[in-house]
Write a structure and sequence with these properties.
The protein has about 900 residues and is mainly beta. It is about 10% helix and about 35% strand. The protein has five domains: about 100 residues, OB fold (Dihydrolipoamide Acetyltransferase, E2P), CATH 2.40.50; about 130 residues, Nucleic acid-binding proteins (OB fold (Dihydrolipoamide Acetyltransferase, E2P)); about 290 residues, Endonuclease/exonuclease/phosphatase (Deoxyribonuclease I, Chain A, 4-Layer Sandwich), CATH 3.60.10; about 110 residues, no CATH class; about 100 residues, no CATH class. The chain has twelve helices and 52 strands. The chain has a six-stranded mixed sheet, with helices on one face. It has a six-stranded mixed sheet with strand order 21-24-25-26-30-27.
């Protein structure tokens, strides 16, 4: 059966390839065989109905040529137009095939299923390839996109997803790398995992499809498949996940997976290079990190120790405390501490491992300057009952380790964990044992956490669990004190009196991962803090360079990439506590527990009170309508900022449309952020949140649904260009009325009378129009005039086959915006600033709330100099700071 390759199959890769070329069986002698079209040879199933038969197929076009064979496809005019059958097939031909792309050929050969890949073997006796014509038009390529292959396994785009396209020409207009290059002995830089959309694949809640009745189901991301760049080309590629590309090629199959074998391959937008270090800690901050060391053994060798030393120093930023997993004994961790000190004498760590012998364990690296009170192992003697036979088994293979320490005057406890993996969680023989062990371990850690609630506590490590339920057991939920019984096959009582915060909930959606499995990004490494310590949390970041790196870097001592297979995380703390709030952020949006049926129901219950349509905001949120809170629909948006020199403040809000608004931080003319909340309920059952910023300071954005108090927070770290927020699953708070058409949209304050007549108001308030009356630029419907009307700004957009010109919305003398599809839906913000006194240039800054293709031109009306900026289609619009856009010498 064709499907995803299991681990054993991958290990057999080299052997299988060797067997394929080493066969010495005597060839069969063939006649001409029956004449068939390719779709008849391929059939509708996973294997050919004519396997083992001699066939002739005539007048097909060569679409791709590689070493050892070529692909042919039925001309479009002769296709059976049956979506369930493929029109393409691979022809095996020894040596360099005597054909070229565009040749029309007749082929005679034996049909075979080569480890699941349908092909015609023309090398057997009697096999032949004859060229009838050349320079023929190639059959149209099948477009792979957001709908094909289907992301819903219950509704595939054809009867046998992927199989129905095997051997055919495929085009991907915008694809995204979802997992780095794999590594095999026979192919050190092998296939990348990809999607044919502008987004990579992420793990989602639930049991993998088809799941179990009554429990959450994860679709398995069937849209994730593979790209083998050099299968039929000479050039190989190895790209960082998140890179977008355009590809045309053929769909092949090998070693259990479907792959695009490209004939054309172009990068659209390259992801940021690896490694990507976390930000440097600010003066006075305390850093607590977690890092899986990928089986650090005694006598690990210089290359392994050197890479881990660089990882901890250069990528994690030499944290004050590092909780480590997969270290085999104290000596191994002491060797790493010694190597770090040798590489940088200013960084001195003490190793703490309490597990006996050389068994895999958790531990701590504690930097000098941190006062260690004690390090204690917990749970080594704990057991659980095997549900299959009633025997008693050891609970913790890697018992939790608790460090009690003081740093910067702040006393706290750090719990390091490494829970049982998900391996065999759904196995018929071992699954129940695995699930029980995972649940009992989670409950054990929860009891430990509860015993530390009187002080500051943080739990970090490799939880081997997601931030949500896997459908079997919600390990993280049980530990933090927040679990929904109805969403789990197994669950235990809530043992935590005051819920913990999972800090990765505050990370941008695109950053919520620490591990990549089969091309699916997932978070296995977490940081949970109790409510006492939450008041000291400044932020959290994952360090990038392991999970997204190509596996062939593991043994390369010249770089730090793939020092381990998990990305580590760093939590930033400050000794100064924030004021307490009620309810705590850790309690917000907690799922209601399922208490079961009422044993003594009231026969005459009181009527339920009507919900408050506009409940009081939490004390840490200002009132809707205040100048520092933006009200869009039934959502509040609040923005808090912190500068490099430690100043803090709250953004001043200005409403633009019913769905959008902006904020300024330092002066009204200098817009720093644009945000919008869109109703996506009819599309995916969620409200969507987008934000673009023109800043590199720390920004904390909090959005609250006033109807129910549910809120989300996004943090842009200090020193990083604002990363656009495009969260299309921000709020699962839709109601039947959420997507009603014809909702009345209020007209923004200050709009002209003409704008007030529009259902989606466009406004050019008199005060705003007045700023464009000084320079020689003339503002129009599609152009902004900024910096005293000197600089003209225009924006063109493209989405698929559609394109258009952005409509300009002036905001201040320096800043303006554009909408593309609807006047109420702002897509782009641009500002031009005078930086002449700072560096001799005028600056152009821009941010977007879109992933369509955009071309922005900025023209200096005095010098006629033009700058052009482009955002490729399918990529979230990245913040741009061009601080050398226009030299001030152009002023004359």
């Amino acid at each position: 059966m064709k499907g995803r390759l299991d681990g054993f199959g991958r290990l057999m890769r080299y052997l299988m390839a060797s067997l394929a070329v080493a066969s010495t069986c005597p060839p069969a002698v063939l006649g001409q065989g029956e004449v068939h079209e390719i779709h008849e040879i391929q059939g509708r199933g996973l294997s050919s109905p004519r396997a083992g038969m001699t066939v002739t197929t005539n007048d097909n076009v060569v679409t791709a040529v590689g070493a050892g064979g070529f692909f042919i496809q039925t001309p479009s005019a002769r296709s059976d137009n049956d979506v369930d059958t493929s029109d393409g097939v691979f022809v095996l031909h020894g040596g360099a095939p005597p054909v070229s792309v565009g040749d029309q050929v007749d082929v005679v050969g034996e049909v075979e299923e080569f480890f699941g890949f349908t092909r015609i073997d023309a090398t057997v006796a009697g096999g032949s390839v004859a060229i009838d014509a050349s320079n023929q038009a190639l059959p149209a390529a099948v477009e792979f996109n957001a709908a094909r292959p289907s992301p819903n396994p219950a509704r595939p785009s054809c009867a046998r997803e992927y199989e129905c396209y095997e051997g055919m020409r495929i085009r991907i207009a915008t694809g995204t790398v979802s997992g780095g290059s794999q590594h095999f002995r026979s192919d050190p830089v092998a296939e990348m995992y990809i999607t044919s959309t502008s987004s990579r694949g992420f793990r989602e809640p639930g049991i993998e499809y088809p799941g179990r009745p009554g429990l959450p189901v994860w679709d398995g991301n069937p849209e994730v498949f593979e790209l083998d760049p050099d299968k039929i080309r000479l050039e190989n590629e190895s790209w960082v996940p998140g890179t977008t590309f355009t590809a045309t090629g053929v769909l092949g199959y090998e070693f259990g997976g479907y792959e695009i074998w490209p004939t054309e391959l172009t990068v659209r937008s390259a992801a940021e290079a690896l490694p990507r270090a976390v930000r440097a800690k600010a003066p006075g901050e305390i850093t607590v990190a977690s890092q899986n060391l990928l089986n650090l053994r005694e006598n690990a060798g210089s290359a392994k120790l050197g890479k881990l030393s660089r990882l901890i120093r250069e990528v994690l930023g030499s944290p004050d405390i590092v909780a480590v997993q997969e270290v085999q004994g104290r000596t191994a961790l002491q060797d790493l501490a010694a190597r770090i000190r040798s590489d940088d004498p200013s960084v001195r760590y003490t190793a703490h491992v309490e597990a006996p012998g050389r068994s895999q364990a958790v531990g701590f690296l504690v930097r000098s300057g941190v006062a260690v009170d004690r390090v204690t192992e917990h749970g080594r003697s704990e057991t659980f009952v095997d549900p299959r036979d009633g025997t008693v088994d050891r609970l913790h293979d890697r018992p939790p380790l608790v460090l009690e320490a003081t740093a910067g005057g702040l006393a706290f406890s750090v719990v390091a964990v490494h829970n049982r993996s998900l391996i065999d969680v759904d196995d018929a023989a071992r699954g129940e044992w695995v699930r029980t062990k995972r649940l009992e371990q989670a409950q054990s850690v929860a009891r430990l956490v509860e015993s530390l609630q009187d002080g500051n506590a943080i739990v970090v490590g490799d939880f081997n669990a997601f931030q949500f339920t896997d459908g079997y057991v919600d390990v993280v939920g049980q530990i933090r004190g927040r679990v929904a019984p109805a969403e789990n096959l197994m669950f235990g009582p809530d043992l935590v009196t005051r819920d913990l915060c999972n800090l990765i909930d505050r990370a941008p959606a695109a950053e919520k991962y620490s591990f990549v499995f089969d091309g699916n990004a997932q978070a296995l490494d977490h940081a949970l803090v109790n409510q006492s310590l939450e008041r000291h949390v400044v932020g959290v970041e994952y360090a990038r360079g392991n999970a997204d790196a190509a596996r062939n870097h593991e043994d390369d001592a010249t770089n730090v990439l793939f020092a381990a297979d998990h990305d580590g995380l760093v939590v930033y703390l400050t000794p100064a506590a924030k004021p307490p709030v009620n309810p705590s952020p850790c309690e917000a949006a907690a799922p209601d527990p399922d208490p079961g049926p009422d044993p003594d129901p009231d026969p005459d219950p009181e009527p339920e009170p009507e919900p408050d349509p506009d409940p009081e905001p939490p004390p840490d949120l200002a009132e809707c309508g205040d100048d520092d809170v933006l009200c869009v629909g039934h959502f509040d948006v609040q923005v808090d900022w912190r500068t490099h020199d430690g100043r803090t403040g709250r953004g001043v809000a200005h409403k633009l449309t019913a769905e959008s608004g902006d904020f300024w931080f330092f002066e009204p003319a200098n817009i720093e952020m644009v945000v919008k909340v869109l109703d996506g309920c009819a599309n995916n059952g969620h409200f969507w949140f987008f934000a673009a910023g023109l800043t590199d300071i720390e920004v904390t954005t909090t959005v609250r649904d006033r109807r129910n108090g549910v809120r989300n927070t996004w943090v842009n770290p200090l020193g990083r260009l604002f990363e656009p927020i495009s969260d299309t699953r921000a709020f699962a708070t839709c109601t039947p009325e959420s997507s009603a058409v014809g909702l009345r949209r209020p007209t923004p304050e200050g709009a002209t009378a003409e704008a007030a007549e529009l259902s989606h108001p466009v406004w050019l308030a008199d005060a705003v129009q007045a700023v464009a009356a000084v320079g020689t630029c003339v503002a129009g419907e599609t152009s902004l005039c900024l910096q005293d009307a000197r600089f003209e700004v225009r924006a063109n957009w493209q989405a698929g086959e559609g394109s258009g010109v952005g409509t300009a919305v002036p905001r201040t003398s320096d800043t303006g915006m554009f909408w593309f599809f609807s006047p109420g839906n702002v897509e782009l913000v641009v500002k031009v600033l005078d930086g002449c006194r700072l560096g001799g240039y005028r600056w152009v800054l821009m941010g977007g709330l879109t992933d369509v293709g955009v071309e922005i031109t900025v023209t200096d009306s005095e010098s006629d100099a033009v700058k052009t900026y482009r955002n490729p289609e399918g990529s979230p619009f990245a913040t741009r700071f061009d601080l050398m856009a226009f030299p001030c010498s152009a002023d004359g």
